[in-house]
Amino acid sequence: MPKLNRRHLLAAVTAFAAMPARAQSFKPTRPVRLINPALAGGAGDAILRLIALKLSELWGQAVVVDSRPGGGMIAGTQAVAQAPADGYTLGGAYSPFTINPSLRADLPYDTLKDLTPITQIGAVTGAVVAHPSLPANNLKELIELARAAPGSLSWGSPGLGTSGHITGELMARRAGISVTHVPFAGGPGIYRELLPGRLQYAFVLLESAQPHLAAGKLKLLAITDRRRHKLFPQTQVLDETIRGLSFENVFGLIGPGGMPADILASLHADIVKVLQDPEMRQQLERQAVEPVASSPAEYAAFVRRDIEHWKLAVKESGARVN
Fold first, then answer.
1. At CA 295, angle to CA 293 and CA 299, rounded to 5?
2. Pick from 127, 140, 204: which is nearest to 177 by CA?
3. Which of 64, 73, 169, 175 reaches 20 to 30 Å from 46, CA-CA?
4. Exposure class string for 133-154: b at 16+ Cβ within 10 A, else e
5. Is the dihedral of CA 222, 124, 297, 162 positive or negative?
6. 32-123+248-317, CATH topology level
7. Mean pLDDT along residues 97-106
């Protein structure tokens, strides 16, 4: 076997050093924190807890859901942005994640630079529901009622800066009606006012409203998606009454900005494995979530598009947070 001279040996060492390191799988050796930027007990919290349970089983390590509500979901998102990008802190991202950049000038992080999109979990159907006493059975009749008595109707949203808030304001602007917005800290507060009739209508998640619809305590006026819902095929979507008006309640997972590619790839693979589990898909569908499990690049592209969508909507609606 020929001997390597010093020059050959140096070249071999240099070539070896230049080779990319083999990607290491992310296998946590301590608990992982999954931050919920909304109140505990809401739809997002329920989804994150399902994911946390499955990841815990996969990793053999606890995945703890940490609820950090506040500031239109900014507090929880900021906690993710400020954490080390080592895979041990993840976060849920709901509709305010892509609305806040256009609605709040004092955002303490850069959505596109300080956070890493991991995957879109799925989308949840939204709905416009009303108290049975309201003499309107669809969106067109609701608009006619509001026009006939300006300022007489009050409506609720899950909070300032949510998709329900912006879309409700945009609907009022395009329909030319004067109605009073009452923001709540999540869905439960809406129902405390809507079910007794102190609130006339609201933008909510369809899944949360279904028990009340089935019991006849509320009625369904419209679906917020771009297409009619399979369970309520007779109910029109917003776009059928006001052209171009629709929104999706998108749920995603994010991490701190600058997450190393190997950690991101490993996390994404494990999360997709969890989301594609038949039992998990069944449980998500019970929550009215249509699973997506997109790639980090696909989710990042969606985030950029959605920021632009809400930028236009916020501007046209005139929505404010204070």
1. 90
2. 140
3. 169
4. ebebebbbebbebbeeeeeebb
5. positive
6. D-Maltodextrin-Binding Protein; domain 2 (3.40.190)
7. 91
Q: How confident is the model at residue 24 (pLDDT cuts 50, 70, 90)?
A: low
Residue 29 backbone dihedrals phi, psi, to 5 degrees: -110, 5
Tokens standing for residue 150? 């300006």
In DSSP terms, 126 is beta-bridged to: 205
Tokens 């998500």, located at residue: 284
Question: Is 126-240 the same fold as 32-123+248-317?
Answer: yes
What gap in Å lies between CA 212 and CA 191, rounded to an integer? Answer: 9
The whole-angstrom separation of Cα 180 and Cα 154 is 5
Q: How far apart are CA 25 and CA 10, in angstroms?
A: 31
Beta bridge partners of 89: 33
The number of residues making up the chain comes to: 322
pLDDT of residue 7: 43
Domain ranges of the chain: 32-123+248-317, 126-240
Q: Give the tens place of pLDDT for each residue, 293-321.
A: 999 999 999 999 999 989 998 998 888 77
**DSSP single-letter state for residue 232:** B
Specify the amino acid at residue 13.
V
Element (H, E) at 255: strand 249-256
CATH number for 126-240: choose from 3.10.120.10, 3.40.50.970, 3.90.1680.10, 3.40.190.10. 3.40.190.10
DSSP letter at 21 equals: P
Total-model pTM: 0.83
CA distances, 296 to each of 39, 80, 110, 186, 314 (Å):
26, 17, 18, 28, 26
Beta bridge partners of 223: 127, 237
Match 């992982």 to its residue by tokens: 32
φ/ψ (deg, to 5) at 246: -165, 160
